[in-house]
Amino acid sequence: GFGDDTISREFALRRPLSPGGFVPLIPVERAQVGMVLVARVTDRKGRLLIPAGNDLSEKNLECLPMWGVTHIEVEGDDSGRQSEGMETSEPWAVSLAEEAVDGHFQLTDRTHPFMKELAEACVQRRASEIQKEGRP
């Protein structure tokens, strides 16, 4: 539900790229060979380790934790989050979720990119829960 800290952590690990998009900032443990770095990777002293635009290699993935790197910025549409999104929820579940979530955002600026995406994520999660409960 809304007390769940997962959504907050998820958004804290993303930074704005443009008014409508975000760059996924992922933990090194979730990185995979072939992912493309959006930002350069530096060590704690600011020394360049891997330039932006490089594909991650197996060796990079082994070395990042040893270098003290905990998170990296990668290209992507954040499709892992989308797998439980509105695309898989039935329209009736999305409609019920929107009604349930709207009250929580009535005093916020829904045009702000963060609040807009947060509200959408809450609707997606709630729609998924409603659908699992099987309520029409």
Note down, in words, how this protein is organized:
This protein has 136 residues and is α+β, with helices and mostly antiparallel strands. 39% of the residues lie in helices and 15% in strands. The chain has helices at 6-12, 58-66, 79-82, 91-102, 113-133; strands spanning 14-18, 21-27, 41-42, 48-50, 71-73. A three-stranded antiparallel β-sheet has the order 1-2-5. The longest helix has 21 residues, at 113-133. The two termini are 19 Å apart.
Structure summary:
With 136 residues, the protein is of the alpha+beta class. It has helices spanning 6-12, 58-66, 79-82, 91-102, 113-133, and strands at residues 14-18, 21-27, 41-42, 48-50, 71-73.
Distance between the termini: 19 Å
Find the count of extended strands (DSSP E, 2+ residues): 5
Number of helices: 5
Strand content: 5-15%
Helix content: 25-40%
Output the strand order for the largest sheet: 1-2-5
Given as residue ranges, the uncertain stretches (5+ residues, pLDDT < 50) are: 1-14, 16-20, 77-87
| Class based on secondary structure composition and strand pairing | alpha+beta
Shape: elongated
Radius of gyration: 18 Å
Order of helices and strands: HEEEEHEHHH
| Average pLDDT metric | 77
Largest sheet: 3 strands, antiparallel
